[in-house]
Design a protein that fits this description.
Rossmann fold, 3-stranded antiparallel sheet, 26% strand, 9 helices, alpha/beta, 9 strands, 237 residues, 38% helix, 6-stranded mixed sheet
Length: 237
């Protein structure tokens, strides 16, 4: 099932063209690694997929109700909140759905839609999932204040937040940054068994090879799709 498609995307900054007619489609369950030289437009494409940036032209189509989790390179946390609350913010729609459903807040049809979302995201177990993510990625204690955390600690919190809601499409820009080897191995296992789609950028070639089921190469403003992992991509060149 196609979750997201983009056709003939064009993006330029001044006289520099990054994307020149890029066409991509992302299907449920696949793990897509974006590769290309530095500055070729990988991060820009992720931002467009995340609806954080707009292409100069092109057509974008997303499945109705598509839920996206996004870890950018330059992330923002609410420094007034605790670690727990910042992680939970990534699943605010799920938490709201649980509260509304438990309070009977809505029509019969609306409550049915809320229940569908809750069951799709395992929303009844959201609190347990937040605690499990925190333990697995070694964040500071959940009750900790966010402001005094180091950059690496904040990035772990941001990664947990992106994963918390079990989105249909995960967009990850350098997800292994500031992670130790144990955390990286855990993330590999998590993503390999993740039922949603994942699109990611990483300089960690081992991680790329282990996770990717398809490679999209950005080169000279174009996108080229290659089935298989990074090794298969290199062998096809």
């Amino acid at each position: 099932m196609t979750l997201f498609s983009a056709k003939e995307l064009r993006l330029a900054y001044g006289h520099q063209t990054l994307l020149d007619g890029v066409t991509v489609a992302i299907s449920s369950g696949e793990k897509v690694g974006l590769v290309g030289r530095n500055g070729c437009g990988k991060t820009s494409l992720l931002k467009i997929l995340a609806n954080e940036n707009q292409a100069d032209s092109g057509d974008i189509s997303a499945r109705r109700g598509l839920r996206i989790g996004y870890l950018p390179q330059e992330f923002e946390l609410d420094l007034t909140l605790s670690v727990y609350d910042n992680i939970a913010a990534g699943a605010a729609d799920v938490a709201s759905a649980v509260t509304r459903y438990e309070n009977g807040d809505g029509t019969e049809a609306e409550l049915a839609d809320l229940l569908t979302l809750i069951e799709h995201t395992d929303g009844w177990n959201l609190d347990a999932r937040i605690k499990s993510l925190s333990n697995s990625l070694f964040t500071p204690p959940l009750e900790s204040e966010t402001e005094p955390l180091s950059g690496g600690e904040k990035r772990r919190v941001a990664l947990c937040s992106a994963l918390a809601s079990q989105p249909d499409l995960l967009l990850l820009d350098e997800p292994t940054n500031h992670l130790d080897s144990e955390s990286i191995r855990w993330l590999e296992g998590f993503l390999k068994t993740y039922t949603g789609a994942v699109v990611f950028v990483t300089h960690d070639r081992y991680f790329l090879n282990v996770i990717a089921t398809r490679i999209i190469e950005i080169s000279a403003g174009k996108a080229y799709s290659h089935p298989g992992n990074y090794t298969a991509f290199l062998e096809s060149k």
